[in-house]
Amino acid sequence: MTAPAYGVLRRVSETASVLLENNPSTMTLEGTNTWVLRGGDAAAAVVVDPGYHDLEHLEKLAAVGPVELILLTHHHPDHAEGAPWFASKTGAPVRAFAPSLCIDAPPFADGDVITAGGLDFTVLHTPGHTDDSVSLLAGGQILTGDTILGRGTTVLHDLGDYLRSLRKLIALPDGTPGLPGHGPELPDLPATAREYLAHREQRLDQVRSALGTLGEDATPRQVVEVVYADVDRALWAPAEASVRAQLEYLRSSSEDGQ
């Protein structure tokens, strides 16, 4: 898929548009997707993940019109760093799962329903990439932050949490579109979540096999060199973080059925 032009608001659905930040990298893919949502005849929009403190991006974002609320999917700077400046510019409050990210508004919790911009946003706490990661269901589509990307797989902090989050997303109605924090939108988010779950189970089997060869005390780096031998070495550092989460999961007495 060809990346849309940076700094150009692109309509994705009746209620959602995306402004792509010019911050491409191996971790952010084409860049951070900043989502702008507005339902019906609402006078102001909701902005999800303003991105870095990147004034070129933030000024273009402020030009889309009045903003009622800013929502953050998690604390990483490529999603949240620009929120204080953007809140000051627009006068909109900031809400997130982590209280430290909030400005002039309370944090939200799993299951909360937030009404803003002519839409109802249902909060799904979906940790795994980070402890404070959430997905936001609004207008029949779901914004996933870094929990599920538009392409490739995300870096993990806690695998047990992540597997539970995937099962939560799999339970959504089939055909629910996914609006990720990076990469192209997904036509069927539950189907993608099922693919992610199968991939994680396959990786766990590969890590188990590597431990059988290397020994149970193998380091994450040693496991990466075996399991990710055919992957570009530029991706080995994030892979090591995910392997560390997998090793912690396998070495724990987790009883989540895996």
Question: What are the defining features of this structure?
Answer:
2 domains; disordered C terminus; 18% strand; alpha/beta; 5-stranded mixed sheet; Metallo-beta-lactamase, Chain A; 7 helices; 6-stranded mixed sheet; elongated; 258 residues
Roughly how much helix do the residues carry, as a percent range?
A: 25-40%
- What is the count of helical runs? 7
Strand % is 15-25%
Q: Could you state the CATH homologous superfamily of the largest domain? A: Ribonuclease Z/Hydroxyacylglutathione hydrolase-like
Number of strands: 11
Helix/sheet category: alpha/beta
Spans of at least 5 consecutive residues whose pLDDT stays below 50 are 253-258
Number of domains: 2
- Give the assembly state of these chains: single chain
Give the CATH architecture of the largest domain: 4-Layer Sandwich
GO molecular function, one term: hydrolase activity
Pfam family, one: WHD_BLACT
InterPro entries: LACTB2_WH, Metallo-B-lactamas, RibonucZ/Hydroxyglut_hydro, Sec-metab_biosynth-thioest, WH-like_DNA-bd_sf
Keywords: Hydrolase
Per-chain topology:
Blueprint: E1 10-11, E2 16-20, E3 33-37, E4 45-48, H1 55-62, E5 67-71, H2 77-80, H3 83-90, E6 94-95, E7 113-116, E8 119-125, E9 134-138, E10 141-145, H4 159-170, E11 178-180, H5 189-214, H6 220-227, H7 236-251
Helix pairs in contact: 4-5, 5-6, 6-7
